[in-house]
Every structure is written in C-alpha cells, then in structure tokens.
Amino acid sequence: MSRTEERIETGTGSRPTMTVVPVRHWGQWITAAALVVVLAGFASTLVTNENYRWDVVGQYLFSSRILTGLWHTIELTAISMIAGIILGVLVAIMRESTNPVFSKIAWLYIWFFRGTPLFVQLLFWGYIAALYPNISLGIPFTDAEFWSVEMRDLMTPWLAAILGLSLNEGAYMAEIVRGGLSSIDQGQREAGQAIGMSRARILRRIILPQAMRVILPPTGNNVISMLKTTSVVSVVAFPELLYSAQLIYAVNYLTIPLLIVASIWYLLVTTTLTIGQHSLEKHFGQGHTTSARSSGGVLRNVMRLQRRGTPPEADIATEKAHG
Amino acid sequence: MNNTLPMVRLESVHKSFGSLEVLKGIDLVMEREKVTCLIGPSGSGKSTLLRCINHIERINSGRIFVDNDLVGYTERGGKFYEMKERDTIRQRQQIGMVFQGFNLFPHMTVEQNIMEGPVGILKVPLAEARADAHRLLTRVGLAEKATAYPNQLSGGQKQRVAIARALAMKPKVMLFDEPTSALDPELVGEVLEVMRDLAASGMTMIVVTHEIAFARDVGDHVVFMDDGRIVEQGAPSEVLSRPSHARTQAFLRGVLLESAPTAAVTEMS
Ligand SMILES: Nc1ncnc2c1ncn2[C@@H]1O[C@H](COP(=O)(O)OP(=O)(O)O)[C@@H](O)[C@H]1O
Ligand SMILES: [Mg+2]
C-alpha cells in the first residue's frame, strides 16, 4: 500500500472500502527541492574550497590553548550563571518584599544592570582601579581602618569577568524569577499557611518548585546565551574560548579555520546544554503533564517526531512512569 | 480541662481592607464537637471571618480565641503584641482549613500533599506519616489514589484529598469555606458525605455553605451574616425554617430558588 493512497476501512466492513487521495502540495515540494540543491551546493564547497583549511581546523581543535580557553568559557558560564541565579532569586524576593527599602533597592539594581550594555559594565569592572585605587574596611567617615588592599591586585581579569557577567545576569534572572513567582496562585500560599508552614518553607516547598516550571525554559535559554556572551569578556583580556582563538590567529593569520574551531566547540556545548535543559524541564513538569508537553522546546519536538507511530497513550504512559 | 468552654470565641471582631469595613463587630461562640454553619450573601464577610480565625488575615480590633488561646497576639498589660511567626504557625496547626478552590499542591502526589504537613512541620517519621495518610485516604474513599497527581482527579476527589490533608495535622477545629461551590452538581454529594462522617465523629466544624439541606441536616447551629454583621443565629430549625428577619427570609428564598433545578435533577436520577 503506498503512502499517498491509503486504504481506510470505514465502518465494520459491510460498506465498501474507500481510496483516499490526500491533497498534494506541489509548491512545497518544489521549494524544498530547491533548498536541498542550494544546501548541497554549499556543503560541497565545504569540501572543495581550500580556504577552509580543514587541516588547520583539525590541528587546532584539540590544541591545549583552545582547550584551556574552552574550559575558561565553561567555568565563566557556570560560575556566572549560578551566581546570577542566586542573585536573581534574592533580588526577586526583595522586589516582592513588603519592606519598601528592599523593593526599591531591588528595582534600582534591575534598572541599572539591565539598562546598560554588558560591554560597558565589563569595562567598568576592568578599569575600576582608576575609580577606586584602594578599598579598605573601616568605620565610615572616620580614619579608622582595619584592612586595606590595592584594587589593581584585587581586580584580576577573571574577577572582572565574573563580576560583570554575574551582576548582569542577576538582573535578568530577577525578572525571570519574579515572573515565575507571580505566576503561582495566591491560594497555594494560603494552603501552606493553613497547614502551618512558615513563609520560608512555603517559598521553598510550594512556590519555588512550581515557579520552576515557568522559570526554567527562559533560564535554559539564558545559559546558552551566556555561553556565547562570555566571548565579550575579551575586553578585559580574559582568555576564554574565542579570545584564545583570536590570540592564535593574531599570530598565524589563519583567521577562518580558528573561528571554525571555536564555533565547533560552542555548538557542541550548546547542544549538550539543550539536552540537559530538556530533562530538567521534564522533572519540574510533574503534575502538569499536559501543559508541560505543549510548552516544549525544539529538542522535545524532535523527540516527539522520532516517536511518531506510537499512539499518544504511550506518550502519556512514559511520562506517568517518571512521575 | 476546658471542655465546657467553647472551641472558638469571637469578641467584637472588626476587620477592614483599607477604608472598606468588612467585619463590623462580630460576637460569636462556636461550641465543641458541634457544626456551625455560616450562611449569607456573597460579599458579606464569611470568608474573611474564617481567615481571621486562623490569622491568615489580621483583625483590626476585637479578640478571637481558639481553645481559649488568643489568636495571633499576646496580651500583656492591656496591650496586644503581635505574635512571632513561630507562634502563629503553632496556632494554625490546630486549625484545619478547606478552600473553595481545593488549593492542592499540583507538583506533589496525593500522598505527598497529605504528608507535607506531618513530615515537614510536625517531624512525624516518614513510615508513620505514610500509614496515617493511607488511613485518611481510606476514610475519604480514595485509598487507590495515593500516587496520583491532583490534575488526574475530579473536583470532588480533589476536595476530599484537601480534607484529608487538613485532617493529617490532627486539628482541633476544621474550617470549610464553601467546599462544594466549585464542584459540578453530581460531585457535591461525595464531599458532603465525607463532611457528614467527620461531623458524626465529633469534629468541631465551621462551614461556610450555600447547601441549605446540609446546614439543616448536619448543622447544630446556623449563623446568618449580612454586610459584615450577624443578623440572626440559632438552631437550624429556627433560622432556616422560621427566620425572623426579613433579610434572612429574602436570602433563603433566593438560595432555594437557585438550587431548585439542581434538586429536581437529583431527584430524577
Ligand atoms: N484581600 C482583600 N482585599 C480587599 N478587599 C477584600 C479582600 N478580601 C475580601 N475583600 C472584600 O471584603 C468583602 C467580603 O469578602 P468575603 O469575606 O470574601 O465575603 P464572602 O466570603 O461572604 O463572599 C468583599 O467586599 C470583598 O471584596
Ligand atoms: Mg467567600
């Protein structure tokens, strides 16, 4: 039986079978064919065009300087993201606080760090020694001083990069977390209160786990975006992945192959992160099977495509088994 | 020792939201092991009254006692000091509450919903809490739903789980805020049945409801509220059958008219 002419049994067999001919989308097929031809042409240039210098790509892909850069990129992403998330949760809670000082400070923080370019913020941290040559611990407005350090020694490129990225990320995370917290029905808080839970416990056990469902997808996107944003820290001369590649081609002029090397690594890590994001979202979707499934990312759709042919009940059964 | 004293006592309780006065001086006594039904038109302050009893809302003046314990404040030298959260929490644990919208925790299974309080707050050992949860689930007729998530339950089942969750804290008194108002008519019965059993077991209950039949059959005392005040109260046979105030009469006529079609359907099936 061909794919286009499926025979469909109607009724109990007493009626004659029908031959159904689906609408044929000729225009779509022609466009698709044209695209495939263009892509194939481009793919062949990847092989035939010698300017790509795949030999150089292979030579540098696992070179120690590139791998160190890659490690720095992952380290920066992880630390800044974790710090950003912690900051974001704190600032979001401050923002919702009934204490006006807390909520104003939170507002000011978000206003400043979202309102100025990360590039500029990084430069500030990099050049902060010009603003504050020394920092010291003492009693304000007096000469008493217990501890003091020169800013030049303190503010390494690494610290400037971490501070810049974390504080910037914190401002964005605060808004994401706030959106998540406010998406939870007030009745949830009251139900917690009614059984005698403390406010902190309600937040930790009831509100945050549910807010996670709303918070996670944009956070996942932010992690992936952070991975690439770390390349901006070259302005404070910190050798992450891209800057390491730049340092190499500044000497040997093999610009394109080294950019390809960097891109391959970025793609590899983002792909890994996307897979991790998917399984986290699934975990926090518990008890929300239907909505969790409809709000899936690209990867989830891919996986659903692969499972085509299995009836929808099987789909639900697997999710229940995880529950 | 205080077994002759009322379970809940309100003394000239006032409550305002901004300039809107919602409770305008409530004096009320609710006896132990009795079912007090609170009826009245929407917006008359019934929910607010319940929420003041477990201090989810703060009152502006007056006093509320639960089991002879002043709710939310300590009185010293003629002044009222607001309690620390720790003490408020301890009081709330003695007061169960069931909401119109169930408010189950959707990210937890039925069993986890019920065990959250005992395990997380009372530090009951896990095995004991689970056995307790299953006993309660059997009691509300949902033994087989222990590992289901709330979104896999019907409204009536959700409300029965919510009752089990409140009972798991072994409260002295249970507050019900229109527990059947969000349910499809055919699911109301199963929830009322559970509440009936609970009343028969001697639980002190305060029930805000529009189910006049329930108030008549199960209630020991009926309180009619309107516009932040208690208009009339007494035995169900008095208040529901021979209301003395025009406002009570008008309200009951309205409620009976509204529920008449439902009653007809129930009779037919
Ligand atoms: N949190 C709140 N803020 C402001 N007004 C409120 C709040 N809760 C209740 N009210 C108002 O108080 C009045 C009584 O409400 P409620 O106690 O819910 O009445 P009932 O339960 O009898 O319908 C209503 O006018 C309502 O709008
Ligand atoms: Mg109400």
Summarize the structure.
The complex is a heterodimer of chains A (323) and B (269). With 323 residues, chain A is mainly α.
Morphology of chain A = flat
User: What's the N-to-C terminus distance of chain A?
Assistant: 40 Å
Written as H for each helix and E for each strand, in order along the chain, the element string of chain A is: EEHHHHHHEEHHHHHHHHH
Largest interface: A-B, 24 and 34 residues
Number of strands of chain A: 4
CATH class of chain B: Alpha Beta
Helix content of chain B: 25-40%
Share in β-strands of chain B: 25-35%
Q: In which order are the strands of the major sheet of chain B placed?
A: 8-9-10-3-11-12
Give the integer mean of the pLDDT values of chain B.
Answer: 92
Outline of chain B:
globular
Instruction: Provide the spatial order of strands within the biggest beta sheet of chain A.
Output: 1-2
Whole-number count of domains of chain A:
1
Domain ABC transporter (chain B): 8-252
EC number (chain B): 7.4.2.1
Keywords (chain B): Amino-acid transport, ATP-binding, Cell membrane, Membrane, Nucleotide-binding, Transport
Pfam family, one (chain B): ABC_tran
Provide an overview of this structure.
Chain B: InterPro entries: AAA+_ATPase, ABC_ATPase_HisP-typ, ABC_transporter-like_ATP-bd, ABC_transporter-like_CS, MetN_ABC_transporter-like, P-loop_NTPase. Chain B: One of its GO terms (cellular component) is plasma membrane. The complex is a heterodimer of chains A (323) and B (269). Chain A has one domain (53-306): MetI-like (MetI-like fold). Chain A contains 15 helices and 4 strands. Chain A has helices at 26-48, 54-61, 64-95, 100-115, 118-126, 128-131, 151-154, 157-182, 186-194, 199-229, 241-252, 255-284, 289-294, 298-306, 312-322; strands at residues 6-8, 18-20, 134-138, 145-150. In chain A, the strands form 2 sheets. In chain A, strands 1-2 form a two-stranded antiparallel ribbon. Residues 1-6 and 290-323 of chain A have low confidence and may be disordered. Chain B is an alpha/beta fold and 269 residues long. Chain B has a 6-stranded mixed beta sheet, sandwiched between helices. In chain B, strands 2-1-4-5 form a 4-stranded antiparallel beta sheet, with helices on one face. A two-stranded antiparallel ribbon of chain B has the order 6-7. Mean pLDDT of chain B is 92; it is low at 263-269. Chains A and B meet through helix 9 and helix 10 of A and helix 2, strand 8, helix 3 and helix 5 of B. The complex binds adenosine-5'-diphosphate (ADP) and magnesium ion. Adenosine-5'-diphosphate binds at residues 17, 20, 22, 40, 42-48 of chain B. Adenosine-5'-diphosphate is lined by residues 17, 20, 22, 40, 42-48 of chain B.
